[in-house]
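Model it.
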Amino acid sequence: MKRRDFMTFLAGVVAGFPRPASSTSRPRHIGVLMGVDGADASAQARVAAFREALAELGWTEGPNLRIDVRWTAGDIQRMRSEAAALVAEAPDAVLASGTPAIAALRDATTTIPIVFVTYGDPVTRGWVASLAQPGGNVTGLANFEASIGSKWLELLREIAPHIARVALLSNPHTEPPSLFIKSIKTAATALGIEALTADVYDDGEISQAISNIGRNGDGGLIALPDIFNTTHRATIIAEAARHRVPAIYSLRFFALAGGLISYGIDNLDVYRRAASYVDHILNGARPADLPVQLPSKFECVINLTTAKALGLVITPRLRVMANEMIE
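Modeled.
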């Protein structure tokens, strides 16, 4: 099934689920397992968007809803312990953000409904049987498709035409990069660019990887979608600036923090959409019957200050396609 046909099918299926008035004899309990730190302002904004969307659907904290948010700061062991603690409280549903957090919840329960927001492929991970018919107790929103990898490389080459090599930065323990590697390497061959995987596990390895790709003055960086990269974004952005390496990121908050360019989903929109799935579940829908949603809204953000510091010129085409340009 083509993506456009699948999205049309998905919209019809979701719209077809009845949504009764949210009346209940008891307050409902929603768990939220976040793979990042609670001090992360962008993560707080995502949870706020989720809360606001639930309120718009009639679920108000206090009178008929309790939301229990757990933060794990990228620590996989902590994700496992918090997942077990949430499951022990038997919530009505759990929102899970990030591959390791979803995996921890999936290991902890096969009955409590889980709505995920993930960078990876939920079918390959074994969380759902298929996008259209997930089966089991898990469904949600997949933030990226494999083909976006080629788009990142094309945009990076357009904003930095001199690059001949590109490092693909990720931590395989938190987000295996396999979803995007094929499309990036196919695009790299067509563009005459050498694509190199850069597996990193701490700040020191981030610094070394970026130093290596920046050594000859012809290197670029793709920071792949990964909770590790999100948690360590200050280091990645600082090292890219120090070694004068043009870098593209998957989410807007990287560009807001000083990253050169980002292209990816509207993250707040995704969390609002996740709230609609939680609403359906609270009103009796089964996760097994709710299709996994694919990304539908993308945004490009360019940091002009960073571009100027790197001596890069923003092409007219990039200016037109950018949703936001930061001075």
